[in-house]
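Sample entry copied in:
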Amino acid sequence: MTDRTLTGLDVVRFLCDFRNGVRPKIVAAIVAAKPEDVYRPGTIAGGNGDGSVFATFVHIVDVEESWLHERLLGEGDKDGPDPARYRDIESVTAIWEAVGHDWERYLADITEHDITAPFTLGRDVSVPTWTIALHVFNHTTHHRAEIWTALTTFGEHPPELDVLDYVDPRQ
């Protein structure tokens, strides 16, 4: 860490780096689980799609992709995840890796002024742009916890994904 004062952009970049850093562990935990558990409907109460671990995984990746490309970059709306693109764990993993790099590029190319600029959520609601990135990364954490709970219920032992372990893997 550094003694200098961190900016909002520094914090958002750190959260992106952390999310990208733990992504392989998340994927490995899903891949290590039995396929019948990963694709079992109703596993995650109130879950997305059919409530399976896989559907929640798709939801995480789709939300990260859509907030960046559709909303922040204004590349047009799509109507949810395309089943042809999000067909299996391998394809979702590849999309997530690409989206992670896209987030890194986006955050590398913007300034502190950009991240604090108003972002319009609706006709009468604007928030600083940094709150969108925070929302997306927090959203991923929320659903990752649901997946971890499901995997634990299946008898799996997913790895720790603590920020302090990311900062200092010797912990």
